[in-house]
């Protein structure tokens, strides 16, 4: 391949400064907007607008399908001209331009290819004189031209011409036939070549406008409404300057010398040449007076038409704009066609409050009847700012051309912008109903337009800062109306800002003017379209390839940044946050990929693994293809890549682990979080963190979060020593993890249904499992200050407390107060919870006495920490509350979960606390406490029995489901776990120990009422039954030696009958109705069926004793009562105790 020429040639206006001269001090600032400036880009593509073989220094400033804007070569910033009083003019007929202030006039060939071109300089006054106003200067045609050569043809561009200098106040009109002959001459010498005229202006009169209407002459308008016609040659073509005629007389009042502003001449436009030395002139005043004059060198000028446009234009506007009546102003007019005087475009304005509407009215004149009709009315949409100073001006290139197309392009020149639109050339009656094409080219605020001119193709505007700028509407648009209508306004301006805004010293203001009404859906669609072109490398200004894929990607990153900047500066409050976030994520994908490309070049091991991931996706996929055409696949591939890196057993090479950590820092933290999220999402777009997109960001998923977390800990554990660089990497990864998890939480919490997903639960578990460990790593690295900042920012109060607790006590005390003030109860509750969990009760109660109210609020908010809350209530001498709290944590189900000794302490303190409140002692509460204390004593006694090797389970239960129940209860008792009363009773009743039956009955006597009548009765029956079944009654000869007798003796002696404890009876121990399904389900689930069968078998065994056993029981009852001192009377028919003293 021949390498002499590059494959893709750089267009210089997109890749280099405008010229070497642009870098000197007189150039303007390249940043055109407030805030962040557009990114300079380097785009490679061919250009149809430049002759690549003949370099001409013309720079394309911007272009689209509709027009191209070029800056011509000559540099005016070098001219010693005052910018405050300068004015200029571009004469396409002669190919020259001029600029002057009140001292000198400079003339040059504006299409010169030289930056420092040759300027013709003409002094405007004597050295010792001073001009207050800059004169009005015009080009004059070459003296040799006659009427047959007075068309705008290319052959006339190089011919020499003259210049007219019209002093605004001192009456002088000076005409020089040949510009070249007076170049740089002293004023006295140049005066010898001058033809002069005294305009005889009044004292309060000055020249306001001048127009070259050759071959007829020069037309001058003054501040008093006068219009003067000056000829500079006679009918034979010889120089002769004379005031040929006053076309319009002074409009100043005769008596009061006041001037009616409506009579001010606002427009002088020349019409077609109508004969030798003859041309038409159109004059329009601010009040709407419109006149057509026939100018002639040889005969008297005459008026062909005199009408007033104001009232009819007003009538055409009042229905839509009622405020037009008091605000309508006529600004300018212009003929539509080069060879017709009947069709004109009138520019007017109406205003409402701070907005000004600019109206284009197409009128058709009828000279025969002296009337006109309004063909169409159109309001400009792209400019609504009031003009200050110079009025906007109309330019219609077709009016000075020789071709008529279906539509005619119209330029409206404002002080800092050019509006382009179209009108119908055919005056088609259906045209006003169609959608009009309109666009605007704005200039920066520091660019002051001082002159203009036009030809059949282009408009020229002049500024000392930038020189001459040419605006050319492309030919195909001039001929194709439908194409113009299809071109999208927003898309066009977005692309211009993206691709051209980075050009050095570009005078174009790419931001849209304020006040433009645009459809939001159209805006968002165009922004997406522009973003897609950059993301997928489809933009026509993006080269298909560059030297490296990284260069290509960097170019697109810079272009996409320009797109985002344009959005912020033009649509930040119009485009939805969701659309902005979608575009931002595309930028972040490209930026992340760009950083990855750079890393892979320097780490072969990672590059090899990346290539394998590409092949897994598609065996033909390469990095070049991915970056240029398939970036949408990058997130999935990158996620899989990180997952592999976290799962892979990485060799012990510290350098490789450093590279892996550095990859996360560069690709995730710097590229996505710093460049994308921080600088663009929050600083540029000023989005609220709570504003999230429709879907999770591409860089937040469980696999990425898990991978970064795993790589973080692996890297931390692999370090034998920690350098400052290592610390920085680990700190950066912690920041990354916190941000990613926080963004995930914000997204999930936006809609409640998102929190019902498995992904949300997995991410929450991952965070809760690891966040305190991240914090501990920072503490171990002596990065406590960073840990505090991170925890404070993300309001991870658990980590915040842990970090504070790691600090020196004296140092941290004041910091604690800061967080108490900032986070209030939320921080306090987290701290109190930490102290409780770490058993730092001294700190809990005494370190922060100022936070007493928060501590009380913390304890009141939940019963979770009742085991500590009662201490605070005791300290506050709120004994009743303390007793209640202790009961809440010691009684019922809550008490059963606590260790035996703890319950006993709590209940004793609760009892004492209740007794302290003498005025409001609750006997019922004290009884409940005492019953539970008795139960605890019973369990302690049961523990003692279980530890006694002489006492064990009754052999009758071995091998039955009761044995498993016994083992379960015994295990809990041996572990000092509290058992409910019914489980204690059953455990007692299964022991091979007579005393245990008495203990069970005693517990039922003292605390049985808390169980409920049915349960108590069931347990009493079970205890008596098992006590009876302990004996083989067929072998028992002496009943006083039975366990039943021993238990009954103690029953009567201890007067357990007073607690409504039933005596044993055959009917009681065989009552199957007491064995309810509810009881079995509540106590023995899920083995209730097996237990029911065992209870049934037990009852059946009792039944086997026979009904006659009832008398034996009564005998034992009576004997035991007598032995105990007969403290009661037993009714043996009812088997109840009826009387006791």
UniProtKB/TrEMBL annotation:
<dbReference type="GO" id="GO:0016973">
    <property type="term" value="P:poly(A)+ mRNA export from nucleus"/>
</dbReference>
<keyword id="KW-0811">Translocation</keyword>
<dbReference type="GO" id="GO:0000972">
    <property type="term" value="P:transcription-dependent tethering of RNA polymerase II gene DNA at nuclear periphery"/>
</dbReference>
<dbReference type="InterPro" id="IPR014908">
    <property type="entry name" value="Nucleoporin_Nup133/Nup155_N"/>
</dbReference>
<dbReference type="GO" id="GO:0006606">
    <property type="term" value="P:protein import into nucleus"/>
</dbReference>
<dbReference type="GO" id="GO:0017056">
    <property type="term" value="F:structural constituent of nuclear pore"/>
</dbReference>
<keyword id="KW-0539">Nucleus</keyword>
<feature type="domain" description="Nucleoporin Nup133/Nup155-like C-terminal">
    <location>
        <begin position="789"/>
        <end position="949"/>
    </location>
</feature>
<protein>
    <submittedName>
        <fullName>BN860_01002g1_1</fullName>
    </submittedName>
</protein>
<feature type="domain" description="Nucleoporin Nup133/Nup155-like N-terminal">
    <location>
        <begin position="62"/>
        <end position="462"/>
    </location>
</feature>
<dbReference type="InterPro" id="IPR037624">
    <property type="entry name" value="Nup133-like"/>
</dbReference>
<dbReference type="InterPro" id="IPR015943">
    <property type="entry name" value="WD40/YVTN_repeat-like_dom_sf"/>
</dbReference>
<keyword id="KW-0653">Protein transport</keyword>
<comment type="similarity">
    <text>Belongs to the nucleoporin Nup133 family.</text>
</comment>
<dbReference type="InterPro" id="IPR007187">
    <property type="entry name" value="Nucleoporin_Nup133/Nup155_C"/>
</dbReference>
<keyword id="KW-0813">Transport</keyword>
<dbReference type="Pfam" id="PF03177">
    <property type="entry name" value="Nucleoporin_C"/>
</dbReference>
<dbReference type="Pfam" id="PF08801">
    <property type="entry name" value="Nucleoporin_N"/>
</dbReference>
<dbReference type="GO" id="GO:0031080">
    <property type="term" value="C:nuclear pore outer ring"/>
</dbReference>
<keyword id="KW-0509">mRNA transport</keyword>
